[in-house]
């Protein structure tokens, strides 16, 4: 049985946008929808009632969200779950490796893009499966015909297998064109090795070399998803900036994750970080296979 798509809600406008996006995606993929509200009891002198009262409010809000989204999509299997405890831990646990977790984010236009809070940042960095971030103003018309799914590819075929699989699956479910983007830069002269110089010479130069690398990474997924039209785009420049430049008409941007731990918390990699903060559409961050 296919794993459900999980949407995290907290009563905010951005989480309702995430829930709406997740429901549409669940319908497209023929999956169930699981709605999760992570909650921790916080006593407050200005709020009457104890744990049971607060739990009742949370459960009531969740049930209302479930009823509303089920009413919009008759036939969609929708379940709701309140998880008490730390929000990051609860949402990371909800991010099944074979599923999909959808979060909301406040958005303030194309310049500012997404406002990624500490919870969202940590969940994206630690989740075992793909996480999609949806801004509060996202609407269904942004998924209209003619808008592409854009995916960033780097490294070799094995390095990008997970992100390309997700991108092809998503494009196939939407009947969309997939634009595969590979950015490259000239490294300092001292970084060249005799072996790398020989590969560049055999390929006819850096541009043909990068195009060949992108085509080779895409080939197995083209064969698996022959119905998906693919546009290959190779450009010199910063990977994050190149992805943003070509995503003006994207309905979704898909990037890989390079999470690492630091003294100030988890980091998700510069490319994913830049795209998350400035993309004009929802962004999917996919962990390595």
From TrEMBL:
SUPFAM superfamilies: Adenine nucleotide alpha hydrolases-like (SSF52402)
Domain of life assignment: Bacteria
Protein known as: Stress-inducible protein
Signal peptide: none
Pfam families xref list: Usp
Domain UspA residues, every copy: 1-135, 149-287
Family under the similarity heading: Belongs to the universal stress protein A family.
Alphabetical list of Gene3D superfamilies matching this protein: HUPs (3.40.50.620)
């Amino acid at each position: 049985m296919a794993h459900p798509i999980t949407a995290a809600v907290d009563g905010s406008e951005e989480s309702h946008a995430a829930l709406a996006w997740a429901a549409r995606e669940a319908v497209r993929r023929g999956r169930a929808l699981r709605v999760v509200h992570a909650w921790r009891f916080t006593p407050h002198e200005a709020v009457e009632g104890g744990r049971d009262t607060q739990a009742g409010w949370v459960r009531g809000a969740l049930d209302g969200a479930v009823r509303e989204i089920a009413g919009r999509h008759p036939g969609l299997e929708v379940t709701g779950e309140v998880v008490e405890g730390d929000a990051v831990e609860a949402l990371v646990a909800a991010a099944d490796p074979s599923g999909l977790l959808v979060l909301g984010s406040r958005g303030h236009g194309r310049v500012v893009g997404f406002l990624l809070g500490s919870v969202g940042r940590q969940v994206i960095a630690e989740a075992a499966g793909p996480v999609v971030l949806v801004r509060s103003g996202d609407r269904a018309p942004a998924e209209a015909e003619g808008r592409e799914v854009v995916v960033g590819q780097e490294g070799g075929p094995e390095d990008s297998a997970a992100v390309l699989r997700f991108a092809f699956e998503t494009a196939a479910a939407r009947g969309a064109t997939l634009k595969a983007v590979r950015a490259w830069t000239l490294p300092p002269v001292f970084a060249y090795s005799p072996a790398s110089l020989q590969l560049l010479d055999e390929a006819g130069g850096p541009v043909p070399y990068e195009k060949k690398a992108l085509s080779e990474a895409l080939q197995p997924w083209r064969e698996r998803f022959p119905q998906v039209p693919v546009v290959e785009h190779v450009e010199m420049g910063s990977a994050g900036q190149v992805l943003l430049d070509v995503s003006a008409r994207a309905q979704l941007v898909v990037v890989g994750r390079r999470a690492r731990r630091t003294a100030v918390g988890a980091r998700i990699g510069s490319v994913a970080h830049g795209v998350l903060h400035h993309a004009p559409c929802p962004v999917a961050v996919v962990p390595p296979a």
